[in-house]
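Q: What would this complex look like in 3D?
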Amino acid sequence: MRIAAAEIGQETDTFSPLDTTLELFESHGLFHGDEIVDMVKGEGMLGAFLDYLDTQEPVELFPIIRAWAGAGGWIKGETLEYFEQSLREGLEQALPLDGFFFAQHGAAASYKDDDVEGYLLDVARGVIGPDVPIVMPLDHHANITERMVRQSTIIVGHRTQPHDPYDTGQIASELSFPVFKGEITPSVGFTNIPMITQQDQFLTKAGPMKEWFDAARALEQEGRALTASPFPMQPWLDVKEGSWTALVYTDSDKDGAQQMADDLGNQAWSVRERFWVSERVPSDEAVAKAVGTPEGLIILSDTGDSVYGGAPGDSTHILKALLKADVPQTALVPMLDPDAQAQAAAEGIGADVTLSVGGKVDSVFSSPVEITGRVAALSKGLEAYVERRGYSDLGPTALIEIGNIKLVLQSHRSFAVNQPILYTHLGLNIDEAKMVVVKTASNFQFFAPWTKEIIRVDSPGTTQSDLTTFTWKNLPRPTYPLDDLKDWQAGTASE
Ligand SMILES: [Zn+2]
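A: Here is my prediction, written as structure tokens for the whole assembly.
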């Protein structure tokens, strides 16, 4: 068999002011051809497929491109064109093909086309033709468009939040060979659910999200579905076909697949209000609660400035509350600010500095704050490794001590922002910290060994939980809860 493989992934926060460029993909690892096998085997969805190939009869493999950039703003048109060209050339050289394993994100939007995954599938189909199977694993926060379903053969979404990219890649891999060989013929059931919801109930370990994902697992375990994927689209995606989706595949049973997808859609809709339950608290209250908790590390989740959701990472909202409270215990705080980092580095270790930090990229929801402190440590950069995700360049950093506040100024928007290494590489000890600000509303796992409690801070920003205050320009209407939509049912018109 002749098999092509590629991964192109980015999650777009369409409210973020920070454009996503090719350089950002390069900083997360952009690879072509055979170097892909060396660099990403064992990592992520594509890495799982490369591992899986070792367990199968030998195939002729054509690795084309691996590009990943985490979450951020709109992808520049020229960047999408670069991927288009790489994909086209790679597939042309690989012809004729028996299958294409194409991992994407599902919620990528470019100025050139707000459905990047569908766009790139069109490109691939244009080269390989209509009959070569395409197996596509996706993030479950994807926006599933009609074009994505039509142009792919089978789609598999993540099963857990926090994400499980490697496992998703494995499941897609196990389906891929029977599909490539024509032993199974996937029939799709596809239901868009006219709703969006906040991130506060996105974890799959409890609540309505767990119940919804469990229902999909039951369809698979009962043998009724080849694969069933709920897609609770990430909520900062203002695109033409934006909505939640249920996607179910059977072997050649179209009606059965559609019925199951409709049932999953109706299930999510029926509990839509439960997805809006939240434990968020104002920043001052969150800081007071952290200070008053006797022992253990308190996570202050900066929900509005989630770098993992695509926000810039330079909100000063919680920092201002910590300064105001003059916290009596150690507080660890990350801040993206290349200018302030460079100023601190120029002053040198031990220098007393007054700096204007943060609030520069996102000047809509945040504003700079003036701090006076001491440059306690500097770093020229570090390659941070994240299991099953790969490497990320931390770039130069500076540790500023403002009393008990340990502020780490970052020059790069690295996904190490929510990990202990951001602090430990500057000589700090997590054991001695009372609280840490994280730029995520879901990925608390990195500080789990120390964590006593997680407090969701109701902070403003491009990933804030209050979705009603954004200006929505593209989303189909009516959509719950932006519009008064009471009586939707799967399989009927959304009136
Ligand atoms: Zn996601």
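A: To summarize the key features: The chain has 13 helices and 19 strands. The mean pLDDT is 95.
Q: Very helpful, thank you.
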